[in-house]
Specification:
about 350 residues, alpha+beta, five-stranded antiparallel beta sheet, 15 helices
Amino acid sequence: MQTNLSERSQKILQTTIKHYIATAEPVGSKTLVDEYDFQVSSATVRNILGRLEKAGFLYQPHISAGRIPSDFGYRTYVDRLLILDRQWERKIEQEVSKNLQQETNNFDVLLQRATQFLADISGYIALITLPQPHTTQLRHIHLVQISVTQVMLIVVTDSYQTQSILMNISLPLTTEEETEMADELQILANFLNAKLHGKTLAEIVKLDWQEIDRDFTNYTHFLQTLLKQLRRCLHTSATPQVIIYGLSEVLRQPEFSQLQQVKMLIHLLEQQRDQLIPLVFDLSEIEEETTKVNVKIGSENPLDSMRPCTLISATYRQKNIPVGSVGLIGPTRMLYEYTIPLVESTADYLSDALS
Protein backbone atom coordinates (compact mmCIF):
# COMPACT_ATOMS: atom_id res chain seq x y z
CA MET A 1 0.00 0.00 0.00
CA GLN A 2 1.07 3.59 -0.62
CA THR A 3 2.71 5.17 2.42
CA ASN A 4 4.32 8.33 0.97
CA LEU A 5 1.77 11.10 1.40
CA SER A 6 2.03 14.80 0.71
CA GLU A 7 1.75 17.18 3.65
CA ARG A 8 -1.78 18.14 2.58
CA SER A 9 -2.86 14.49 2.24
CA GLN A 10 -1.42 13.70 5.68
CA LYS A 11 -3.33 16.64 7.17
CA ILE A 12 -6.61 15.58 5.56
CA LEU A 13 -6.11 11.95 6.65
CA GLN A 14 -5.27 13.04 10.20
CA THR A 15 -8.32 15.35 10.37
CA THR A 16 -10.63 12.71 8.88
CA ILE A 17 -9.56 10.13 11.46
CA LYS A 18 -9.81 12.58 14.37
CA HIS A 19 -13.27 13.69 13.25
CA TYR A 20 -14.48 10.10 12.90
CA ILE A 21 -13.08 9.19 16.34
CA ALA A 22 -14.99 12.13 17.84
CA THR A 23 -18.31 11.58 16.04
CA ALA A 24 -18.46 7.92 14.86
CA GLU A 25 -19.98 9.31 11.64
CA PRO A 26 -18.49 8.80 8.14
CA VAL A 27 -16.63 11.94 7.04
CA GLY A 28 -17.27 13.68 3.72
CA SER A 29 -15.44 16.47 1.91
CA LYS A 30 -18.14 19.06 2.75
CA THR A 31 -17.71 18.39 6.48
CA LEU A 32 -13.94 18.84 6.24
CA VAL A 33 -14.24 22.08 4.23
CA ASP A 34 -16.99 23.54 6.45
CA GLU A 35 -15.45 22.66 9.83
CA TYR A 36 -11.70 22.84 9.16
CA ASP A 37 -9.66 25.56 7.52
CA PHE A 38 -7.97 23.74 4.62
CA GLN A 39 -8.18 26.79 2.34
CA VAL A 40 -8.95 24.56 -0.66
CA SER A 41 -12.14 23.73 -2.52
CA SER A 42 -14.48 20.89 -1.65
CA ALA A 43 -13.57 19.28 -5.00
CA THR A 44 -9.86 19.23 -4.06
CA VAL A 45 -10.61 17.66 -0.69
CA ARG A 46 -12.91 15.13 -2.37
CA ASN A 47 -10.15 14.15 -4.81
CA ILE A 48 -7.66 13.68 -1.98
CA LEU A 49 -10.16 11.58 -0.04
CA GLY A 50 -10.58 9.43 -3.14
CA ARG A 51 -6.82 8.91 -3.44
CA LEU A 52 -6.58 8.06 0.27
CA GLU A 53 -9.34 5.48 -0.19
CA LYS A 54 -7.64 4.00 -3.23
CA ALA A 55 -4.38 3.74 -1.24
CA GLY A 56 -6.16 1.80 1.54
CA PHE A 57 -6.20 4.44 4.31
CA LEU A 58 -9.99 4.99 4.17
CA TYR A 59 -13.08 3.21 2.88
CA GLN A 60 -16.76 3.92 2.30
CA PRO A 61 -19.23 1.78 4.28
CA HIS A 62 -21.86 2.69 1.64
CA ILE A 63 -21.56 4.23 -1.81
CA SER A 64 -23.37 7.43 -0.80
CA ALA A 65 -21.66 7.72 2.61
CA GLY A 66 -18.54 9.58 3.65
CA ARG A 67 -15.35 7.75 4.47
CA ILE A 68 -14.10 6.04 7.62
CA PRO A 69 -10.57 4.88 8.53
CA SER A 70 -9.36 1.37 7.70
CA ASP A 71 -7.08 -0.58 10.04
CA PHE A 72 -4.18 0.56 7.84
CA GLY A 73 -5.36 4.14 8.19
CA TYR A 74 -5.45 3.87 11.99
CA ARG A 75 -1.98 2.25 11.96
CA THR A 76 -0.60 5.12 9.89
CA TYR A 77 -2.29 7.59 12.21
CA VAL A 78 -0.80 6.01 15.36
CA ASP A 79 2.69 5.53 13.90
CA ARG A 80 3.12 8.73 11.88
CA LEU A 81 0.40 11.32 12.45
CA LEU A 82 -0.39 11.11 16.16
CA ILE A 83 1.01 14.05 18.11
CA LEU A 84 1.30 13.41 21.85
CA ASP A 85 1.38 16.64 23.83
CA ARG A 86 3.89 16.42 26.70
CA GLN A 87 1.80 18.80 28.81
CA TRP A 88 -1.25 16.59 28.22
CA GLU A 89 0.82 13.50 29.15
CA ARG A 90 1.87 15.12 32.44
CA LYS A 91 -1.78 15.88 33.21
CA ILE A 92 -2.63 12.20 32.65
CA GLU A 93 0.26 11.11 34.90
CA GLN A 94 -1.07 13.40 37.65
CA GLU A 95 -4.60 12.00 37.19
CA VAL A 96 -3.30 8.42 37.48
CA SER A 97 -1.23 9.23 40.57
CA LYS A 98 -4.12 11.06 42.27
CA ASN A 99 -6.56 8.20 41.74
CA LEU A 100 -4.19 5.34 42.53
CA GLN A 101 -2.39 6.71 45.58
CA GLN A 102 -1.89 3.74 47.86
CA GLU A 103 -3.63 3.66 51.20
CA THR A 104 -2.56 0.06 51.72
CA ASN A 105 0.49 -2.11 51.07
CA ASN A 106 -1.74 -4.75 49.44
CA PHE A 107 -0.68 -4.72 45.79
CA ASP A 108 -3.69 -6.83 44.72
CA VAL A 109 -6.00 -4.12 46.05
CA LEU A 110 -4.05 -1.53 44.04
CA LEU A 111 -4.44 -3.65 40.88
CA GLN A 112 -8.20 -3.91 41.42
CA ARG A 113 -8.47 -0.15 41.86
CA ALA A 114 -6.23 0.54 38.84
CA THR A 115 -8.30 -1.72 36.57
CA GLN A 116 -11.57 -0.12 37.63
CA PHE A 117 -10.09 3.36 37.28
CA LEU A 118 -8.86 2.62 33.75
CA ALA A 119 -12.26 1.27 32.67
CA ASP A 120 -14.18 4.18 34.20
CA ILE A 121 -11.98 6.96 32.84
CA SER A 122 -11.49 5.52 29.33
CA GLY A 123 -14.89 3.95 28.67
CA TYR A 124 -13.18 0.77 27.43
CA ILE A 125 -12.44 -2.71 28.79
CA ALA A 126 -9.45 -2.64 31.13
CA LEU A 127 -7.29 -5.70 31.85
CA ILE A 128 -4.38 -6.02 34.27
CA THR A 129 -2.56 -9.31 34.78
CA LEU A 130 -1.42 -10.16 38.29
CA PRO A 131 2.37 -10.18 38.76
CA GLN A 132 4.08 -13.44 37.91
CA PRO A 133 6.73 -14.57 40.43
CA HIS A 134 8.85 -16.25 37.73
CA THR A 135 10.03 -18.90 40.19
CA THR A 136 9.48 -21.82 37.82
CA GLN A 137 12.88 -23.43 37.30
CA LEU A 138 14.20 -25.37 34.34
CA ARG A 139 15.05 -28.96 35.28
CA HIS A 140 15.94 -30.59 31.97
CA ILE A 141 16.01 -30.03 28.19
CA HIS A 142 15.87 -32.85 25.67
CA LEU A 143 16.29 -32.43 21.89
CA VAL A 144 14.95 -35.21 19.65
CA GLN A 145 15.61 -35.36 15.91
CA ILE A 146 12.31 -35.83 14.04
CA SER A 147 13.71 -35.26 10.56
CA VAL A 148 16.61 -33.47 8.88
CA THR A 149 14.78 -30.16 9.25
CA GLN A 150 12.75 -30.67 12.44
CA VAL A 151 13.66 -31.09 16.09
CA MET A 152 11.39 -31.74 19.07
CA LEU A 153 12.21 -29.58 22.09
CA ILE A 154 11.11 -31.21 25.37
CA VAL A 155 11.24 -29.04 28.51
CA VAL A 156 10.84 -30.35 32.07
CA THR A 157 10.38 -27.87 34.96
CA ASP A 158 11.11 -28.31 38.66
CA SER A 159 7.44 -29.22 39.24
CA TYR A 160 7.89 -32.00 36.65
CA GLN A 161 5.56 -30.31 34.19
CA THR A 162 6.54 -31.30 30.64
CA GLN A 163 6.04 -29.33 27.45
CA SER A 164 7.09 -30.24 23.91
CA ILE A 165 7.45 -27.97 20.88
CA LEU A 166 8.27 -28.88 17.27
CA MET A 167 10.97 -26.58 15.91
CA ASN A 168 12.41 -26.07 12.44
CA ILE A 169 16.19 -26.09 12.08
CA SER A 170 17.79 -24.58 8.99
CA LEU A 171 21.42 -25.63 9.26
CA PRO A 172 23.08 -26.51 5.94
CA LEU A 173 24.03 -30.17 6.43
CA THR A 174 26.01 -32.57 4.26
CA THR A 175 24.95 -36.23 4.04
CA GLU A 176 27.63 -37.16 6.55
CA GLU A 177 26.52 -34.41 8.91
CA GLU A 178 22.91 -35.62 8.74
CA THR A 179 23.94 -38.90 10.34
CA GLU A 180 25.82 -37.02 13.04
CA MET A 181 22.93 -34.66 13.82
CA ALA A 182 21.46 -36.75 16.62
CA ASP A 183 24.84 -36.88 18.40
CA GLU A 184 25.30 -33.13 17.95
CA LEU A 185 21.82 -32.44 19.31
CA GLN A 186 22.71 -34.49 22.39
CA ILE A 187 25.88 -32.45 22.82
CA LEU A 188 23.85 -29.25 22.42
CA ALA A 189 21.26 -30.47 24.95
CA ASN A 190 24.02 -31.36 27.43
CA PHE A 191 25.55 -27.92 26.91
CA LEU A 192 22.23 -26.15 27.49
CA ASN A 193 21.40 -28.28 30.54
CA ALA A 194 24.77 -27.37 32.05
CA LYS A 195 24.13 -23.67 31.37
CA LEU A 196 20.43 -23.49 32.28
CA HIS A 197 19.63 -26.17 34.88
CA GLY A 198 17.91 -24.64 37.91
CA LYS A 199 17.52 -21.21 36.36
CA THR A 200 14.20 -19.33 36.47
CA LEU A 201 12.56 -17.45 33.60
CA ALA A 202 13.83 -14.13 35.00
CA GLU A 203 17.39 -15.45 35.07
CA ILE A 204 17.15 -16.84 31.52
CA VAL A 205 15.87 -13.47 30.26
CA LYS A 206 18.97 -11.76 31.71
CA LEU A 207 21.54 -14.27 30.38
CA ASP A 208 24.30 -13.00 28.08
CA TRP A 209 23.32 -15.05 25.05
CA GLN A 210 25.96 -13.43 22.86
CA GLU A 211 28.60 -15.08 25.02
CA ILE A 212 26.79 -18.42 24.76
CA ASP A 213 26.41 -17.94 21.01
CA ARG A 214 30.19 -17.66 20.68
CA ASP A 215 30.51 -21.12 22.18
CA PHE A 216 28.12 -22.55 19.58
CA THR A 217 28.59 -20.23 16.60
CA ASN A 218 27.16 -22.67 14.06
CA TYR A 219 23.94 -22.92 16.06
CA THR A 220 23.41 -19.17 16.63
CA HIS A 221 20.03 -18.87 14.89
CA PHE A 222 18.81 -22.14 16.34
CA LEU A 223 19.85 -21.09 19.85
CA GLN A 224 17.98 -17.79 19.50
CA THR A 225 14.84 -19.62 18.38
CA LEU A 226 15.30 -22.14 21.16
CA LEU A 227 15.57 -19.34 23.72
CA LYS A 228 12.21 -17.89 22.66
CA GLN A 229 10.58 -21.31 23.00
CA LEU A 230 12.14 -21.82 26.44
CA ARG A 231 10.79 -18.49 27.61
CA ARG A 232 7.35 -19.42 26.31
CA CYS A 233 7.48 -22.86 28.01
CA LEU A 234 8.48 -21.45 31.40
CA HIS A 235 6.09 -18.51 31.10
CA THR A 236 3.05 -20.59 30.16
CA SER A 237 3.67 -23.24 32.83
CA ALA A 238 1.43 -21.09 35.02
CA THR A 239 -1.31 -19.08 33.26
CA PRO A 240 -1.35 -15.51 34.60
CA GLN A 241 -4.47 -14.36 36.39
CA VAL A 242 -6.12 -11.24 35.03
CA ILE A 243 -8.45 -8.60 36.45
CA ILE A 244 -11.04 -7.28 33.97
CA TYR A 245 -13.44 -4.33 34.26
CA GLY A 246 -15.42 -2.22 31.84
CA LEU A 247 -17.71 -4.43 29.75
CA SER A 248 -20.68 -2.19 30.59
CA GLU A 249 -18.59 0.88 29.75
CA VAL A 250 -17.52 -0.28 26.29
CA LEU A 251 -21.06 -1.38 25.39
CA ARG A 252 -21.98 2.32 25.30
CA GLN A 253 -19.81 2.67 22.19
CA PRO A 254 -21.88 2.64 18.96
CA GLU A 255 -19.69 -0.13 17.48
CA PHE A 256 -21.13 -2.54 20.04
CA SER A 257 -24.81 -1.60 19.73
CA GLN A 258 -25.79 -4.85 18.00
CA LEU A 259 -26.57 -8.03 19.97
CA GLN A 260 -24.13 -10.10 17.89
CA GLN A 261 -21.29 -7.72 18.76
CA VAL A 262 -22.19 -7.91 22.45
CA LYS A 263 -22.12 -11.72 22.27
CA MET A 264 -18.72 -11.54 20.60
CA LEU A 265 -17.24 -9.48 23.45
CA ILE A 266 -18.75 -11.69 26.14
CA HIS A 267 -17.42 -14.79 24.36
CA LEU A 268 -13.97 -13.19 24.19
CA LEU A 269 -13.87 -12.38 27.90
CA GLU A 270 -15.46 -15.60 29.16
CA GLN A 271 -14.57 -18.36 26.68
CA GLN A 272 -11.35 -17.11 25.10
CA ARG A 273 -9.61 -15.66 28.15
CA ASP A 274 -6.75 -18.19 27.92
CA GLN A 275 -6.09 -16.96 24.35
CA LEU A 276 -6.58 -13.31 25.27
CA ILE A 277 -4.03 -13.18 28.11
CA PRO A 278 -0.97 -13.92 25.90
CA LEU A 279 -1.99 -10.99 23.69
CA VAL A 280 -1.77 -8.72 26.72
CA PHE A 281 1.32 -10.25 28.34
CA ASP A 282 3.70 -12.38 26.27
CA LEU A 283 7.35 -12.25 27.30
CA SER A 284 8.60 -13.50 23.95
CA GLU A 285 7.03 -10.44 22.29
CA ILE A 286 8.00 -8.06 25.08
CA GLU A 287 11.69 -8.81 24.54
CA GLU A 288 11.39 -7.75 20.88
CA GLU A 289 9.36 -4.58 21.43
CA THR A 290 11.04 -1.28 20.57
CA THR A 291 8.41 0.91 22.27
CA LYS A 292 6.98 0.91 25.78
CA VAL A 293 3.37 0.67 24.60
CA ASN A 294 2.14 -2.03 22.22
CA VAL A 295 -0.84 -1.17 19.99
CA LYS A 296 -2.62 -3.95 18.05
CA ILE A 297 -5.26 -2.55 15.69
CA GLY A 298 -8.14 -4.55 14.20
CA SER A 299 -6.84 -7.26 11.88
CA GLU A 300 -3.43 -7.17 13.59
CA ASN A 301 -5.08 -9.13 16.42
CA PRO A 302 -4.92 -12.91 15.83
CA LEU A 303 -8.34 -13.65 17.36
CA ASP A 304 -11.35 -13.17 15.06
CA SER A 305 -13.39 -11.77 17.96
CA MET A 306 -10.74 -9.04 18.40
CA ARG A 307 -10.81 -7.86 14.76
CA PRO A 308 -13.23 -4.94 15.42
CA CYS A 309 -11.07 -3.89 18.40
CA THR A 310 -7.82 -2.23 19.31
CA LEU A 311 -5.71 -3.59 22.17
CA ILE A 312 -3.28 -1.21 23.87
CA SER A 313 -0.90 -2.75 26.42
CA ALA A 314 2.22 -1.95 28.42
CA THR A 315 4.18 -4.02 30.92
CA TYR A 316 4.86 -3.15 34.51
CA ARG A 317 8.09 -4.33 36.07
CA GLN A 318 9.76 -5.35 39.31
CA LYS A 319 13.47 -4.50 39.39
CA ASN A 320 13.37 -4.06 35.60
CA ILE A 321 11.92 -7.56 35.04
CA PRO A 322 8.49 -7.61 33.32
CA VAL A 323 6.01 -9.28 35.67
CA GLY A 324 2.60 -8.13 34.44
CA SER A 325 0.75 -6.00 31.94
CA VAL A 326 -1.85 -3.23 31.73
CA GLY A 327 -4.26 -3.27 28.79
CA LEU A 328 -7.27 -1.52 27.26
CA ILE A 329 -9.65 -3.05 24.71
CA GLY A 330 -11.96 -0.79 22.76
CA PRO A 331 -13.18 -0.20 19.21
CA THR A 332 -10.58 0.71 16.58
CA ARG A 333 -12.22 4.16 16.74
CA MET A 334 -10.29 4.80 19.94
CA LEU A 335 -9.03 8.09 21.34
CA TYR A 336 -5.39 7.07 20.88
CA GLU A 337 -3.80 10.34 22.01
CA TYR A 338 -5.43 9.77 25.41
CA THR A 339 -5.41 5.98 25.83
CA ILE A 340 -1.75 5.41 24.87
CA PRO A 341 -0.30 7.74 27.56
CA LEU A 342 -3.00 6.54 30.00
CA VAL A 343 -1.90 2.89 29.69
CA GLU A 344 1.78 3.86 29.83
CA SER A 345 1.32 6.06 32.92
CA THR A 346 -0.62 3.34 34.75
CA ALA A 347 2.05 0.74 33.98
CA ASP A 348 4.77 3.13 35.18
CA TYR A 349 2.84 3.81 38.39
CA LEU A 350 2.46 0.07 39.10
CA SER A 351 6.18 -0.47 38.43
CA ASP A 352 7.06 2.23 40.97
CA ALA A 353 4.59 0.83 43.51
CA LEU A 354 5.87 -2.73 43.09
CA SER A 355 9.53 -1.78 43.27
